[in-house]
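Q: Two folds, back to back.
A: First:
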Amino acid sequence: MLGGVLYSHSISIFPDEAAEELIVTEGTTQFEWIKNKCSTIHESKPEVVLVGTGKQMSFPTVAQREWLYENGLIHLEWMDTAAACRTYNLLCGEGRRVAGLFWLDTLK
């Protein structure tokens, strides 16, 4: 639940924007949708970017971390989606500019 709304699909949410469904199909990786949102992340100028990785916590590979670093995305906070949602709600409640990519373990 984010900001009092229960979602049944993966979403991205940025400061000053409505949540957007992230289309997750067979073979889609979390890293691919992070790459696709790179410019939106930069444009929204968040204080923190939360990445909810599903039911289990997962980290990017070394090659993926290098790509993120080269593209200025070095301050992503990786956690399972439930923890990312709780953190998002807490930080928004403090008035912080938070962006989030929340992966649900479901396929469309």
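A: Second:
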Amino acid sequence: MPLGPVVQMRGNERLAWDQMAASAAEAASIRPVIYIDSELADMQDVSCGTKATAAGFTCSGRLPPLSPGRHIIQLASVAAGQSESQQSTLSDPLLVDVASPTTDAAKP
């Protein structure tokens, strides 16, 4: 699987995506499933916009804390009332590089 460019992160960002759905209510009922380095993780504070665009409804969620270094993030979705075993196919991978935290003592 080819990876795109590396996205630089601090490790506390939100991830946004377009969710195809027939209505805002349906978009809000679809649960995102996130994989970080092929491991299932929880995304918090998920919300979707109420206006559809040609690409769907814009949704976003807070990523779980990420350790410094490179990670591969992929998304899938699960319809309301279904389990992860019935998820959609995984998104294309997003390659991120989380910066190491710095301290004031380390600054020149």
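Q: And?
A: The two ends are 41 Å apart (CA to CA).
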